[in-house]
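User
Here is a favour to ask of a fellow structure person. I am asking you to supply a protein in sequence and structure-token form. Please set it down just below, with no commentary around it:

Assistant
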Amino acid sequence: MTTRRINKPRRIIHDVEELPVICGAAEAGLLLRLTPETVARMARQGTLNGRKQGQVWFFRRDDLVAYLDDLFSQGVVQ
């Protein structure tokens, strides 16, 4: 019996314009190619700029792009 991975992205974002201006952890994970849980953990730790309302994390598309730009400008990709 195989174990199904929970919250596995069903699609991949090829262009940042495919994301809404304000997105949730799952949509941010599509761009960053991370699970929603990892995106939420990064936001809790302050690594990724996001805001939590209730139990839902929200991220601005521009902040996600800035995070990726910062990673590539440092030459370090995790």
Notes: The mean pLDDT is 86.
